[in-house]
Amino acid sequence: MVFNSLTFVAFFAIVLLLHAMPFGWTTKKINLLVASYLFYAAWNPPFVILLWISTVVDWYAAQALVRAEGKHARRAWMLLSVVANLGMLSYFKYGDFVLQNFSALMGAAGIAYTPPAWDIVLPVGISFYTFATMSYTLDIYLRRALPAKNFLDYALFVTFFPHLVAGPIMRPTELVPQFESPRKATPDMVRFGLALMTLGLFQKIVLADAFLAPAAERVFDAKDAPGFVDAWTGTLAFSGQIFCDFAGYSTTAIGAALCLGFAMPDNFRFPYAAVGFSDFWRRWHITLSSWLRDYLYIPLGGNRHGPVRTYAALMGTMLLGGLWHGAAWTFVVWGGLHGLYLAVERLLRTRYAGYRPGPLALLGLGLLTYALINLTWVFFRAHTFGRAWEMLAGMVGAHGDAKPILGTPLLVPALAIVACLVVAHWRMRERTLESAIADTSPWLLGAAWGLMLFAIVIAQGAGNAFIYFQF
Amino acid sequence: MTAADRPGVAQPVPERDVPVRPWGPMLAGALIVFVVLMAFWEAYWRDYGVHPAYRNSPGQWAIQRRRIDHGEGDALVLTGASRVLFDVQLPEWERTTGERPIQLAMEGTSPLPMLDDLAADPAFTGRLLVGVAPDVFFSGFEYRGEVVKYAQKQGPSQRSGTWLSMHVLEPVFAFYEPDFALATVVRRQAWPLRPGIEKRTRVRKLAESDFDRSTHMWDKVANDRAYRAMARAIWAEDFGAAPPGMDTPASFDKTVETQIARAKKAIDTMRARGVRVLFVRMPSSGEYYAYEQRYFPRATTWERLLRETGTPGIHFEDYPQLQGYELPEWSHASASEARRMTVQLAPLVNTAFARHNPE
Q1: Does some domain include residue B300?
Q2: Residue closest to A201 by CA, chosen among A256, A127, A271, A260
Q3: How far is Cα of residue A322 from the mean position of the Cα atoms in its chain?
Q4: Model-wide pTM > 0.90
Q5: Which domain holds residue B208?
Q6: Interface residue of A457, A466, A469 to substitute, partner B, most B CBs within 10 Å
């Protein structure tokens, strides 16, 4: 089920109630586990089996890893986990992509090959929970963590519903210890958790779905080539939409976990205030970027083997990171552009190591970063390269005589929201949400909370799935 | 500190501090603000003339669609666009014939996706009334054609969401209706028109639905002169030209041919298992009728459809008892007129079905 649904409201109320009952800690954990399976099965019940497979394979692989004495045996168990998880992910997510590309390759070689229809539904959240479970065996293999003391704690780590389908991608060391001893949310934790959920749902239902998505869709899905204003508005609207959609999910997830007494890490830190791309990736989807860094970039050599290897590892990580987002070459290009940006930034930082920008230069660099990130969003959002090039051409003014696409009712609110978003990120650049709340009048906070609740209800969201569910 | 600051190590249990604030009073204040604003919003829409009613949601449509697969496969099923949805009154039909049809018509949507869907479902062996609103049917316009896929793929949480909505919200709140959603309200304000953009006003609320999609015209359309004028003006935005992609004789012919071929394929499939099909052209009037006459002449659309699909049809122009009704915005009958029309239509339909035997 999605957070922005009536079913979730009822589900969460029941879960909160059960969790507040005077049951033993093990019973409460079983309740949470069953609730999490229900949460997942509410999309498509048979896919719970995949979740079980992933859970059980990694549990036994980790147990065997601990018992294994030889280096090769340890590696074999680690590889079993990686192959099982990536195999499942590849089959469901990349099967069609591989077939289509194979067909195109055969066609290029003059061999006609039509692949069979690939009517496989992508299990929701598979990219997220496979990464979470893999980090369990990988941390044990890398001797960073000990295995969970019991299967229940481990299964709950994999399945815990707030993070299950779209992150934040949890590491076992972050969550398993929280299940080991009884935790109870204080009344203020519950209230703050509810406030976070309100904020997250406001971002998703009101900003992303009601105002930004229609503008982005109208431009990206139009048949006509966009002019300068439409191309930029569509792209800026998408930049706002994807942030509000995904950060909204993370904030809601963090709030839901907090209401139950559990802590989850930040996944976003005002990313549109980033100055440079390494800064951006320290602020955007933090749990994925750090996962890729720890389990891909560093094992690929990181920055320990000279500049060439460093740049290769950087580019490889970002290309694979792009592919993680979707089985299409447009996502690979998106990742490649980020890899290129990071490589150029690294080069510039090495060359101008002593440079410290002043306030105006910092603002300029921040805006440049945001503009360049918007160029990458074009490839992320466009369904084809053809449309992506049309959008980019529009953004540089190549379609001077293009017919307008967006009317003012879509254009003005979208631009206004994105402008407010960027300004808010910039003002919050060096702060946390918690510190800002601590400095704000309770009257204002209460009124803003009530207003957000009101806006969520009157927006009458259609329960649209979060963008990242498809990844 | 986040994981971004701790490369290559086991990530510790996150710390999640709760800012020191009077959270209890803040929550109480938020709830007061919320309740006051909601009361104002609900009162505003009730004062506007809105009553709590069931939403014409994809979930509602899916519930009706499932009836065919759950023991009612031999029922009379109604498809078409808004004219069948608003003008055929299920209670009157039931009173007249003793049978309550399954209502699958959807506003602004060609019935062809529904025909394809029913053709592919061996459980459906009953009778099918297909409403033909010329500008929708022959252009293939599918404003809400996605309901078919939605119904096919509806997951458990979507089903429970529909159930909760229908039992907890819809019977209680008047504001809970897509026409009054925040973004819709914002977009229909008097925004300046951007040069080069044609004025396109979204169709406003025209009807109210009951539990099984039994739907009638909203009384404000019939009784409020200004609202009725607005509804007509919105239709009139389309009257100046042929629908997109149908502006030349060749493109018109090709589009019509595509729709008819699609209909024929579905009908042939259904007929093979004994389904009886009937086309019905519900009344229109005023400028809407003039627009249809101009861009969708009967000879090249309706007559061709009947001929090429070998299917009987009821056209309102051929039956005096289907003429002379009050259609406040030229396209749909008011609730009382729809009741009167249904009493006249039902026997005609039953007679036509009785006369028509599948091969």
Answers
A1: yes
A2: A256
A3: 12
A4: yes
A5: 47-187+201-355
A6: A457
DSSP code, position B9: S
Q: Give catalytic status of residue A325 as yes or no.
A: yes
Q: Indicate yes or no: CB of A6 within 8 angstroms of CB of B164.
A: yes
Cβ count near A221 (within 10 Å): 13
Could you say which of A163, A285, A325, A425 is catalytic?
A: A325
Q: Which of B40, B165, B182 should one mutate to test binding to chain A, selecting the residue with the greatest count of A CBs within 10 A?
A: B182
Q: Which residue of B has its CA nearest to A444?
A: B26
**What does the alpha-carbon distance between residue A216 and residue A410 come to, in Å, rounded to a whole number?**
9
Tell me if A201 sits within 8 A of A193, measured CB to CB: no
Domain count, chain B: 1
- Judged by phi (left if over 0) then psi (alpha if -120 to 50, else beta), residue B86 lies in alpha
Residue of B nearest to A291 (CA): B3
Domains of chain A, by residue range, sit at 6-99+113-184, 189-275+357-470
- Structure-token pair, residue B134: 């010329």
Q: Return the structure tokens found at A407.
A: 């009317």
Q: For residue B142, give the CATH number of its domain.
A: 3.40.50.1110
In angstroms, how far is the first alpha carbon of chain A from the final one?
Answer: 16
Instruction: State the ipTM, two decimals.
Output: 0.91
B54 pairs with which residues across the strands?
A: B209
CB neighbours of residue B43 within 10 Å: 12
Per-residue pLDDT of chain B (359 residues; tens, 9 = 90+): 778 788 878 888 898 999 999 999 999 999 999 999 999 999 999 999 999 999 999 999 999 999 999 999 999 999 999 999 999 999 999 999 999 999 999 999 999 999 999 999 999 999 999 999 999 999 999 999 899 999 998 989 999 999 999 999 999 999 999 999 999 999 999 999 999 898 888 899 999 999 899 999 999 999 999 999 999 999 999 898 888 889 899 999 999 999 999 999 999 999 999 999 999 999 999 999 999 999 999 999 999 999 999 999 999 999 999 999 999 999 999 999 999 999 999 999 999 998 875 54
Per-residue DSSP letters for B220-279?
HHHH-HHHHHHHHHHHHTTTTSPPTT-SSHHHHHHHHHHHHHHHHHHHHHHHTTT-EEEE
Q: Residues A39, A164: contact at Cβ < 8 Å?
A: yes
